[in-house]
Design goal:
Layout: E1 13-22, E2 26-33, E3 39-43, H1 48-57, E4 63-66, H2 70-79, E5 84-87, H3 89-106, H4 136-156, H5 161-168, H6 172-180, H7 202-210, H8 216-225, H9 234-244, H10 256-264, H11 272-284, H12 286-303, H13 310-320, H14 325-332, H15 336-342, H16 350-366, H17 372-380
Helix pairs in contact: 1-2, 3-10, 3-12, 3-14, 5-6, 11-12, 12-13, 13-14
């Protein structure tokens, strides 16, 4: 602590990003030089005030690279009104990926291949043949549609979000999620299954099971011989699911997360199976085919630095009215200048993200044993 802070000149290009002191609770702000990628200062919070004060006392910043956090946009505007703000391209593509996942989840019924028509059974009454069975996903969608309509009706009557939460007995975050959603489909999210240490070895178990090896003890021994970090209890549970599946069962439909990856990854990185699966999904769902075109166009804007064409892309997405994507596109209008600069100029927050990654090592060396001042000093002297 007795060592002096390293001297630096005010950077012309400033990178701004947050990092967690304690994840989910306390965050600080990291400032780096966009040209040398060196850390120039660390601020105790990620609010607009400290950033604006730092910029006021360090005039000369011309370009500010940041994510799309509203606090950093406000702090940059107050502390350096003449500086050009640049939204980071990585965060833009990350936001697009979340929007695509919402769009795919809203059209999850299109992912399932249509079942071949079955003739009615002889003992089935004609008026009951072909009636659809229970549809949990459909009932869930109806509940979300009704909740979305109710929240927006109360908002139109002038009630605050907190008042709506108290009136309905819901959590405030639930009301905020429905209030922020432009369409009710924007509230749909895939329920992602929990990962397991057995996941990488499931294809092996499926192959051995198909070969006729159904002994749990033997299969578990084979996994241990391969140094698989699995317990015995994991194997019979999964083997039971294989026994319950009929041998002629059709392959399961692709997951929402999987289709989202097909749409947002570069086409050259997809293998033949992925390309065939994506082509099949897009042929069944015109809406997802339209969404795929929007994603490709945005990727071209991002990689070719065609930020000036962004307004035309936003108008095209708005006209298609796709859940998730339309909300993402319209949200870009709130920060259009910074987003356009991020999609046009060479500057990005890559160096700042690297500095944040190095901070994690320093945090682990003294976690819980020092306060912010010592952490700041070690970051500056690294």
């Amino acid at each position: 602590m007795a060592l002096p802070d390293p001297l630096f000149s005010t950077p012309r290009v400033l990178g701004v990003d947050d990092f967690a002191i304690r994840r989910g609770q306390t965050y600080s702000t990291l400032l780096t030089c966009g040209e040398t990628h060196r850390v120039v200062d660390v601020l105790p919070t990620r609010e607009a005030g400290p950033l604006a004060a730092w910029l006021t006392t360090h005039p000369g910043v011309e370009i500010i690279c940041r994510d799309r956090a509203g606090a950093y946009a406000e702090g940059a505007r107050l502390g350096a009104p003449d500086a050009l703000q640049v939204a980071d391209r990585f965060h833009l593509w990350q936001g697009l990926g979340r929007a695509v996942e919402t769009c795919v989840a809203a059209h999850r019924e299109c992912l399932r291949a249509p079942a071949p028509p079955r003739p009615p059974d002889a003992d089935t009454p004609p008026d009951e043949a072909g009636l659809p069975g229970p549809d949990p996903a459909g009932r869930r969608a109806q509940r979300k549609k009704a909740a979305h309509a109710l929240v927006h009706e109360l908002l139109a009557q002038g009630h605050s979000r907190r008042a709506i939460a108290r009136h309905l007995g819901w959590g405030l975050n639930t009301v905020l999620r429905y209030a922020r959603a432009v369409h009710w489909q924007d509230t749909l999210r895939e329920t992602r299954p929990r990962s397991s240490r057995l996941d990488p070895y499931k294809p092996y178990l499926e192959r051995r099971f198909a070969e006729g090896c159904t002994s749990v003890t033997r299969l578990h021994g084979e996994l241990l011989a391969e140094h698989a970090p699995v317990t015995y209890a994991m194997v019979p549970t999964y083997i039971a699911t294989l026994r319950a599946s009929p041998p002629d069962a059709p392959p399961p439909p692709p997951k929402v997360r999987q289709v989202t990856g097909w749409l947002t990854r570069h086409p050259t990185t997809l293998n033949e199976e992925d390309r065939a699966g994506l082509k099949d999904v897009l042929a069944r769902c015109p809406e997802l085919d339209t969404a795929a075109g929007h994603v490709r166009n945005f990727g071209e804007i991002l990689t070719s630095r065609l930020g000036t064409t962004l307004p035309a892309w936003i108008n095209a997405v708005d006209a298609s009215q796709l859940p998730g994507l339309t909300g993402f596109a319209l949200h870009l209008l709130r920060d259009l200048d910074a987003v356009t600069a991020g999609l046009t100029l060479e500057w990005s927050s890559g160096g700042t993200e690297g500095a944040v990654n190095r901070i994690k090592k320093i945090k682990r060396q003294l976690y819980g044993r020092a306060g912010f001042e010592l952490l700041r000093k070690m970051i500056l002297l690294q």
